[in-house]
Amino acid sequence: MTIRDVRSIEIDRAGLTDAIGRCRKVATSLGVPEGSVRSVTLRAAANEVEFTLSTEAGTTPVVLPAAALGALAVAYLIAVRVPVPKQATKSISVTEQGVTIVFEFVMNPPSAAFTRTSPLPPNAMDWRA
């Protein structure tokens, strides 16, 4: 028997803009210069996002591919206190609405022979019809 836990989290344009500001160290390590985000262009076909920033040098476009967006998305989810499974398989895609990150965790629970069985306590969630 296998149990799969699949979580899909979508970060929209406003969330991506917030991610650049909140996760400045990660953004800088990905090549995003200091500045304020003016626009976010989602390129679903190319699986990338273009940020246009206002910097001291003027307007600067920065394109982040999916791999870089994954690092930024995970850092942002941690920063806003969304639980992120560490051992999960991660995938990321750019859609027309935003960036979608999917976490998949697969586990094989022990067989019944190795688990302790005990009756449910009184007033437990009774799902019997």
Protein architecture, described:
This protein has 129 residues and is an alpha+beta fold. Helices cover 23% and strands 39% of the residues. It has 3 helices and 6 strands; from the N terminus they run βααβββαββ. The strands form 2 sheets. The chain has a 3-stranded antiparallel sheet with strand order 1-6-5. Strands 2-3-4 form a 3-stranded antiparallel sheet. Helix 1 packs across helix 3.
Biggest β-sheet strands, sense, barrel: 3 strands, antiparallel
Biggest β-sheet: strands ordered side by side in the sheet: 1-6-5
Number of helices: 3
Q: What is the radius of gyration? A: 20 Å
Total domain modules = 1
SSE blueprint:
Elements: E1 3-12, H1 13-22, H2 24-29, E2 36-43, E3 48-55, E4 58-65, H3 66-79, E5 89-94, E6 98-107
Antiparallel strand pairs: 1-6, 2-3, 3-4, 5-6
Helix pairs in contact: 1-3
Give short descriptive properties of this protein.
alpha+beta; 23% helix
Summarize the structure.
It contains 3 helices and 6 strands; from the N terminus they run βααβββαββ. The model has no long low-confidence stretch (mean pLDDT 87). Helix content is 23%, strand content 39%.
